[in-house]
Design a protein that fits this description.
There is one protein chain. Helix 13 links the parallel strand 15 and strand 16. This protein has about 500 residues and is an alpha/beta fold. It has two domains: about 20-265 and about 470-490, 3-Layer(aba) Sandwich (Aldehyde Dehydrogenase, Chain A, domain 1); about 270-455, Aldehyde Dehydrogenase, Chain A, domain 2. About 40% of the residues lie in helices and about 20% in strands. Helix 3 runs antiparallel to helix 6 (about 170-180), helix 4 (about 95-110) crosses helix 5 and helix 10 packs across helix 11 (about 310-325). The protein binds NADP nicotinamide-adenine-dinucleotide phosphate and magnesium ion. The site of NADP nicotinamide-adenine-dinucleotide phosphate has 28 residues, from helix 8 and helix 9.
């Protein structure tokens, strides 16, 4: 077939013969001279060659970040000046919007609409933190007379930021923007499957005026380079988004040096549709909730619970509309569902579908690898709806990370809440009802970091994003994130005219 990416990539200014590491403001090859390839999941074709960082490169990046932090001017600048640079990053991204979108699509196989939304949000993240940082400050606290106490928010230092493949640029923005806003330096480790846009973002930071060494980007293996950063004595904080098992591993390793840790992990988010819901809105929102980004979202609403009184009416529309979802050329405006990241993930998804079948579940739609005309070399999975499940099934309890939703009935609020809370995860959740009091009751009882009420979207810049339970801890995308990249220092002074003599000597 024609090489979709070649024609596209060749037109991009962002094309590089080799996408290199960014360390201390310089684009360099990996110290071992190795490279790896990145693929377009829609076609299976090679997109680009990427320099592979080694542990020695990670050391170099940490050293550069440390030097920039300890001796550099970035954290010393007036906050307004840092804000200006963050806005400049956003404006450069805006001016190259289409290019970044295209590069992201080539590297991930996601649909145009998804990529556009995510790149726009990445831009808005920088704008949000440019504003938020100006208001971020310590407090003055009440202490006995003749004492004075205030707190300072000091940047935590050098941060390792480990990024997943599902939202490569957006996750990089979620991490880099708040960290550098407060004055930290970062070493970003993008996912091996999707390193391109994070590399470009690092270059844009430099171009916008972020001093060399403040933002370093080192594509390389998670097990090797990622681990090394997590254990590194020169790293003060680790911010990780990815799978729950790796998150647990990171927390264990990071504990050896008592690093600050933020973990944004997996989910199995419930989506509750009550009998009084606007059924059409609930159907549309529930479809988006699971099939957006081909279901490769940590907050994908992958467990759908429908009140028994409207189950049949809801499901009729839900399945009928799901059949209309278009899989195909990711660059087409009309494509709803893009590719799956790689063959391994297709196998994982299919494994869960097969296990559900073996457990006696009923496949209402999909349930197999998708054949997409013109994209035979790529990785695709049909939007899949599974009914007839019980709560113990693997497909109901575990994160599938693909376009697969399990559907169940419930009979009342109490049961809905019990089922919603019955997994180890607690990231997203959604409620569809016209009854405001009920929505509030449910929101209060759900153990999850995010509750979407009659709303298909989980977040905007400014809304806290993060999990309860084994979905991790710490919140990103919001004001509170700035606290997670700072230490609070308490300055307590005495200004009385008589010297204090607490021992009475
Ligand atoms: P992952 O293995 O957790 O990888 C995420 C990031 O961590 C990647 O940059 C990876 O590098 C790195 N990494 C892997 N092992 C590491 C280690 N021992 N120490 C430090 N860093 C390490 O996730 P994945 O392989 O991308 O996806 C697997 C599953 O994770 C998915 O099926 C899904 O269930 C879940 N997931 C969740 C989210 C989310 O947002 N919650 C996002 C993505 C994936 P490499 O790329 O080099 O392996
Ligand atoms: Mg790729």
């Amino acid at each position: 077939m024609s090489t979709v990416h070649e024609t596209k990539l060749d037109q991009l200014e962002m094309k590089r013969a080799v996408y290199q590491l960014l360390i201390n403001g310089e684009r360099i090859d990996g110290s071992a001279g190795e490279t790896f390839k990145t693929y377009n999941p829609a076609t299976g074709e090679v997109v680009a060659e990427v320099a592979k960082a080694t542990k020695a490169d990670a050391d170099k990046a940490v050293e550069a970040a440390r030097a920039a932090f300890e001796h550099g001017k970035w954290k010393m600048w007036p906050v307004g000046r840092r804000a200006q640079v963050l806005n400049k990053i956003a404006s450069i991204m805006r001016s190259r919007f289409n290019e970044i979108v295209e590069l992201e699509i080539l590297d991930t196989g996601k649909s145009l609409a998804a990529a556009q939304g995510q790149v726009m949000q990445a831009i808005e993240d920088f704008e949000f933190y440019a504003g938020a940082i100006v208001g971020h400050r310590g407090t003055v606290n009440n202490v006995p007379g003749q004492f004075h106490n205030y707190t300072e928010k000091e940047p935590v230092g050098v941060c390792a930021q480990i990024i997943p493949w599902n939202y490569p640029l957006m996750m990089a923005a979620w991490k880099i923007a708040p960290a550098i806003a407060v004055g930290c330096s970062v070493v970003v480790k993008p996912a091996t499957l999707t390193p391109l846009t994070a590399i470009i973002l690092g270059e844009i930071c430099l171009e916008a005026g972020v001093p060399a060494g403040v933002v370093n980007v080192i594509p390389g293996s998670g097990r090797e380079v990622g681990n090394h950063l997590v254990e590194h004595e020169g790293v003060d904080k680790v911010a990780f988004t990815g799978s729950t098992p790796v998150g647990k591993d990171i927390m264990g390793r990071a504990s050896q040096t008592l690093k600050r840790v933020t973990l944004e992990l997996g989910g199995k988010s419930p989506n509750l549709v009550f009998e009084d819901a606007d059924i059409t809105a609930a159907v549309d929102g529930s479809l988006f909730g699971i099939f957006y980004n081909s279901g490769q979202s940590c907050e994908a609403r992958s467990r759908l619970y429908v009140h028994e009184d409207i189950y049949d009416a809801f499901m009729e529309q839900f399945v009928a509309k799901a059949k209309r979802l278009v899989l195909g050329n990711p660059f087409d405006k009309g494509t709803h569902v893009g590719a799956i990241i790689d063959q391994g993930q297709v196998d994982v998804i299919d494994g869960y579908v097969q296990s559900a079948k073996a457990d006696g579940a009923e496949i209402l739609l999909g349930g197999k690898v998708a054949q997409v005309e013109g994209y035979e070399g790529g990785f695709w999975y049909e939007p899949t709806i599974i009914a007839g499940v019980t709560h113990e099934m693997k497909a109901v309890q575990e994160e599938i990370f693909g376009p697969v939703v399990v559907v169940m009935k419930f009979k009342d609020e109490k049961e809905a809440v019990r089922l919603a809370n019955d997994t180890e995860f607690g990231l997203g959740s959604a409620v569809w009802t016209k009854d405001g009091a009920r929505a509030t009751r449910i929101a209060n009882q759900i153990k999850a970091g995010i509750v979407m009420v009659n709303c298909p979207f989980s977040a905007f810049p400014g809304t806290p994003f993060g999990g309860y339970k084994q979905s991790g801890f710490g919140r990103e995308l919001c004001i509170e994130t700035l606290d997670l990249y700072t230490e609070t220092k308490s300055i307590l002074s005495y200004y009385g005219s008589r010297p204090l003599n607490p021992f009475g000597l």
